[in-house]
Amino acid sequence: MSQMVASSTNESASSSPQMSAMRSQENTCSSSLSSCSTMPGAPKSDASSLPPITTSSLPSDRQRLIANQSWDKISARHPIGCKNSTPDTETLIDYAATILEMRLADVVRHRRDVKNSRSQASSMVSEDGLINGVKIAPTAVAGEMYEVDIDEGKLEDLEGLQPPSIVLLSSNCRAQVRAYVRRIASMYHDNRYHALEHAVHVTMSANKLLEMLHEGGPVDPDDDTKDMKKFAVSLGASYQSDDSSVSSTESTSGKFSFVFAAIIHDVDHQGVPNARLVVENDPIVQLYDGISVAEKHSIKVAFRTLNESEFDEFRSLVFESPDDRLHMHHIVTNLVVNTDIASPERAQSSKDSRMALRHSVVIETMLNVADVAHSMQSWELFLFWNRNLFEELYDAYKGGRSENNPANGWYENQLFFYKIYVLPLAAKMQMCGVFGRRGGEFLRNAILIRDQWEREGDQITKDMIVSVERESLSSA
């Protein structure tokens, strides 16, 4: 997400209404280290210590932990919002790499299934239209899905046709995935907000959104097919996906691109908004014509790194063909650039709420939600992440990289940001229909957080400003 300045509109005429955020550490956890349980560190892994992922692999402990987290409790630190429970870098890398591995394994599994089904169908269909002696539907075409009329007595003839357990991701490939995530992690700066932990939180939230698509169920069965087809197009078919032979609601390559975009979306972020980079005439500004420069730079860094020789096996599974490469680059670019919520181009494209729900924008909306997920999850996460953003903006102000003291108007700006961005975004998640009965969860959470901030935020802001200024003086 392009960084939002808390209080001033003077820094850039083109910047959107500023995002404010804060957290009160005193309200979320004890100041004592013993009151917070730190996350266990994940050891660095090489190929020799990583078992391959196969079609019969059981979920790892990390996969189960990720799957069991509810939307409103997603966090890499526990207790959530606890200042002293900072997860170490290897733990954050393990979270992100595990999600990429799961989604990449799904891509490989799907490709193998499609190829095997076509090959199997071609080899089993005889000239008289029989598959192992079973008559197929007369409209069946080789290479497509078959509708088979099976006699009960013929079922035994079809036993044993399932392929044996096969390797989806080799040990070496898993090591490359983790090495890639580690390299990306090393290029995240030590910012208070736009740092590795934020990228991992966005990735975990993005992955959860994909899971929630299958958890909600239809609100109205008559609308479900229509809504899911809309999402199908958004997740891949409109980009000529290699998954076009099946329902792209199950577009595994689109889902991988989605979580990939999440982990790389703020890589090499300098901790200041695009408007400031333009003022400072940063070298990347000229490369991207001054528009969404941080986002476009992150995309370039991510793909340039992926093209390095040490990631050959990983890359060969992500891209089976030049078309795959173009397809993924197109999706990731659209997703990441769309997280620049201060972009005038994005603001123009979002004016019409109906147009904002056109096919390709459903998935872009989902990444926008993941990017500010804390504002639609829980009060504790809201306080934690928004204080981090306040501290980042305050650091920029004290360091001479911003003319605006974020403390000015902080409380009011929270309410304004909810009004003009968070609540409409949450409502859009319900309107698009693809989350079924769970579609209203985002808006309900956002309203609860907004209302609690309206009641308590003024005093919390005053306490936070005193706390941050005191910490700044003590570290000077």
UniProtKB/TrEMBL annotation:
Location of the PDEase domain: 193-429
Keywords in alphabetical order: Hydrolase, Metal-binding
GO MF annotation list: 3',5'-cyclic-AMP phosphodiesterase activity; 3',5'-cyclic-GMP phosphodiesterase activity; metal ion binding
Origin species: Thalassiosira pseudonana
Region (Disordered): 1-61
UniProt biased composition (Low complexity): 7-16, 48-60
This protein's name: PDEase domain-containing protein
Single GO biological process annotation from the record: signal transduction
InterPro entries listed in its UniProt record: PDEase_catalytic_dom, PDEase_catalytic_dom_sf
